[in-house]
Structures are given as structure tokens and as C-alpha cells.
Protein 1
Amino acid sequence: MRNDSASTATAVLARVGGPANVVSVTHCMTRLRLTLADPAAGDEEALRALPGVLGVVGGGDVWQIVLGPGVVDEVTAEVRALLAGRTADAAPGAAGGQGAPATESARRRDATPVRTALRRVAHVFVPLIPALIGCGILAGFNGLLLNAGLLPALTPALSAIASAFMALIPVFVGYNTAKEFGGTPVLGGAVAAVVVYPGVAKVTAFGVHLAPGQGGVLGALAAAFLATRVEKWCRGRVPGALDVLLTPAVTVLLAGLVTLYGLMYAAGTVATAIGTAATWLLATTGALAGLLLGGLFLPLVMLGLHQALIPLHATLIEQQGYTALLPLLAMAGAGQVGAALAVYVRLRHDVPLRTTIRSALPAGLLGVGEPLIYGVSLPLGRPFLTACAGGAAGGAFIGFFAMLGTRVGATAIGPSGWALFPLLAGNRGPALLASVYAGGLLTGYLVGFLATYVTFRPAAPATPGDTATDTTTTATTPAPGT
């Protein structure tokens, strides 16, 4: 039974220092992300123990609370409603006080240049994922209709609907970039729109004509970031009476010119290099690349850093029509499912943990790994490592076929597991692509299960007067609700 979202939101806010301690609220497909004025005022253990909370990633001013797909949207809406009702004297930062020195120390540790950059890039692209998923599914369905020769009157309309967003995605990237970096969002979108405007074909840069879309999302990201810097520069120098006229014009003009005569060409070169490198990597070292990507993805998910890969996926989809990296990374979820099933078989008498596994498995099969990560494998320790082994094996399987010339890709990002089947694309027919992907999933399930079943030794049930412990692996059942 799903927990009441309003009650969950109230309980979450109470355990992060209250509404006054929350600076901003965002969310992705599974996580509520709260930026806290004073992280020391939050109680991470109490938060983990809440029914419905699957895990918490803290360690800095941004706390990621794993709630699962669907639930996170409802709880985020309730949190925002509660924050909207806070009084002026409970403004962010009011919770400071004794925790201030610890807060500043934690913020410095968390705000390394790399982590900050990855987080901000994720904030730009994560809001675009629902549209990427929806348009990707429609593109896959339209492809099936075209291959089967069905509904010829409908396929042009479906193609237009599915392709329109991808054609204009740089505009949305520019809008979100300006918003994230403190500029006027519509100005960021206006400058990024230069990248996809058909008229750029008449512009010559570095001796060659530009092509509409050259540089893609990378060019849009750079263009909007530059526009934000130009806008801030203008705001501090243009008189207030002229600001409404001059600042937007100068921002669009300067950033637009630099975009046309520099950024588009440079970003296009980088984007081409990314596509070439990905193709070469899979063709020559596919099995090894798949092993590494599939095996290391779960730790990235655990740390919340996997969203930083979105620009790479988006660039490959723009260039090639699909990203061949996503199916490799999706194998991490298969290893997780296999490991969870092995734990389920091993711990026959641990009813709470088996109940957690049963409730989390459907999401795991559909590629949402956080419930199994935070509810099962990570608390138990060794199953997390064996789940990574399963993901590595599945990734190596798909990578091996890439070396043989069969590249399996996805037309959108977000889903994985079984949910990725409608989005599969590549350089072969749909039946072969689905077979290779299914083979990777089965390999991940099997290796994850066997590696966990063989190496995981749960603690023996205690008997009266027996103080011995199992020194190989001690199973610790997650708190109720995780």
C-alpha cells in the first residue's frame, strides 16, 4: 500500500531541519533533491527509517531522498506546497545557529569543482527526461509500423510528433542552462535557438558553412552559459532606465555572434569526436568497455552521478539516432535483480527483507535500481559487489556483439531493464537487437544470482546462549520501509 504523500512530505521536512532549512527543491525520476541551508540540522538516520524512503544520499548541502518513480512526483508537489506556506521569518537559513561552522565545512567538502559541475549539468538535463522518454517510445513504435508497412497514413504524423522535440532540444537545454546559472531563461533559449535555426547554413565559420544543429546540446549548453555571463555583466553596467532595452539585445547579440563564429564549430567538433570515440570503443574493445561500464554503473547511481552522462547520451542520439552506451549501462540493473533474487532464496526466514525484495523487484525489472540498491544489496554489503559483477557480465555480452558488428542502442534515455525494449534501435533488424539485449539481461540476471548465491553467507540464527557470529558475511535487515 502506498504511503500518503502529504504525510511523507511532512515527515521528510521534519527530519531535514524543517521547512526553514530548505533552500530549493528539485527531483528526478526517483529522487527528491533538497538543498539545505544547514545540513547539520538534518537527521539522516531518522530519514532512512521513514516508511516509503528507500534510501538517502547526503554528505553535503544537497540531500537526495530516494522515493521511487511516481511517488517522488507526488511527494515533491506536497513538499513545495508546504514550503510555499512557510512564514517570512522562517526563511531559508534561519535554522543556522550552532550548526553553521559544521555546515560551512560540509559545504566545502561537497562543493568540489567536479561534483558541483556534474550536479549543475544534471539539473539542466534531468527535467528533459520525460519528453525524451515519451518521444523515444513514439519513435520506436513508428519504426515498427514503418517496417511492417502498417498505417501508412499515420506514420508521417507520428514521425513529426516524435521528432519535433529532438529537433528543438537545444532550445530547451538553453532555457534550463540559463535558469540553472542565474540568467533569464528565455534569453538562454533564444541564444541556443541559433544552433538549430535553418538560416545558419548561410553563415561561414573557419572557412566552412555551418549546418543547422551543428554542436547540438553541447553547443546550446555553452551558448546559454555564455549568454548568462553576458547578461550578468550588462546588469551591473547598464543604467536602470535602459536595462530593459539594452541588456536583452546585447546579451543575444554578443552571445549569438560568439555562438555562430566559435561555439557551434567547436561544439560540433567535440560532438563528432564523442560519436567517433563511442563507435571505435565498441567496435574494437566492446567486451571490455561493456564490462567496465556495466560493472561501474551501480556505484554511480548510488552516488547520484549517473545523471552527468545525459549530455553524452543526448549527443549520440542527435548524431546517430540512438545511444549505444545506454544498453551497456542498463545491465547494472540486471545484475542487481539477480543478486536480489539470490538473497531472497538465501534468507528464507527473513520475512521483512523478503517482503522488501518482492515489493522492489517489479521496479528493478523495469530498470529502476534504487529500491534494490538501498533496500537490499547496499545494506547487506557483499550483494552490492556481486550485483556489479552481474552488470559487468551483461555489459560484456552486449559489448561482444558490438565487436561482431551488432550495435544495440536506445532512442531515448531514462528507462532500462524490460522498459527499454520499445526504445531499442541500432544497425540491425529489431528482432536481432531485441535478442542481443535480452541475452545481456539474462546474462546479468544469471551471473548476479550465481555470484551472490555462492559468496553470500547469511548469519546463522542465534540460539539461546550462543554468542558466535558468522565471520564471512553478516546479514543486516534494512529498517522497515526501506
Protein 2
Amino acid sequence: MTDATTSALTAKQARFIQEYLLDLNATKAAIRAGYSKRSAQEQGSQMLAQTAIKAAIDAAKVARSERTEVNADWVLRRLAEEAEADLADLYDSNNDLKPIDEWPEIWRQGLVAGLEIDALYEGTGEDRRQIGRIKKIKLSDRLRRLELIGKHVSVNAFQEKVAMSGVEGLADRIARAKLRNGSDG
């Protein structure tokens, strides 16, 4: 926030803005900023409705994006990289799972939601020996990434409702056209 922005706000409001930027939860931000728990939801909602506070939050978000270099372009590039990541990159030429430190970075940064390795044994007692391992990879939701890309680039590939404009009175126009055609012929 700039000095001009913060000078118009109370210390508590400025603190609310800082806290709000942590998790975008107005109620929690109000509590952390010193408002009572009983009135925090109402206070948070009222503050978000104030033009000066909305402007300060927007300015702080822009500054944070510039500082971190995370913006819409970065998010879209990242989603595209994740959507295009090849699962085959996790396996060696013998179709065995590579050690994690040999995985491409994109896979190590969240595409794999879990990895489970179980040993397979045969025999009992002193004759028991490991004969293999089962490796299970749980992947994160790649379809969700495609949905986010689709929404971001406005292809409407995942639009749940289709809005049509210019169809008001269409039924009346069709009925009138039928009457004209019927009376002409």
C-alpha cells in the first residue's frame, strides 16, 4: 500500500488489509486485525464494501504480483506446462519408476499427489525374502487444470450455462412469420 492510500485509513483498517491479503478471508482478517469475534463477519463485510479499502486491497495485490512476478500469464503458463507434462518422464527404459530426484521439476512441484511403495515378500520366518515392490503414484487432478485453462482463455469449453442474446420475442416473430406465409400461400 502506498503512503497516500494508508493515510486515509485507520491503523485497524490498514491491518485488516494486510491480514486479508494472507488468505482473502474477511472474517478471519477482521479478527486478526483486532475486531471482536462476535462482530468480525459483519466488520469484514463492511470493510470490503468501502471504496478506499477495496482500492487499497487491489493496489496491494498488484504490488504483490509485481514483487513475486506471479500474474495471469505466469498462472496460465504453469497450468499449460502441468497439463502437457508427460507421465512417461517418470519412468526409465525398463519401465521402472525413476528416483524422485530424477523426475522433471514440473512433476516434483505438485503433479504427483502421493507416492506409495509397498514391498512384496515370499516365504515365512527366516525364509522370508523380498521379491519385489509395488509402486503406486497418485496424480493430482489434471482435468481441473484444463478447466482452469479453458476458463482463463475464455474458450467457454467448460461453461455450464449458455447465454443467448437477441432471442427475446423469437417465438412471437416465428408465429407472425407463419401467419404471413400461411396467408400468402
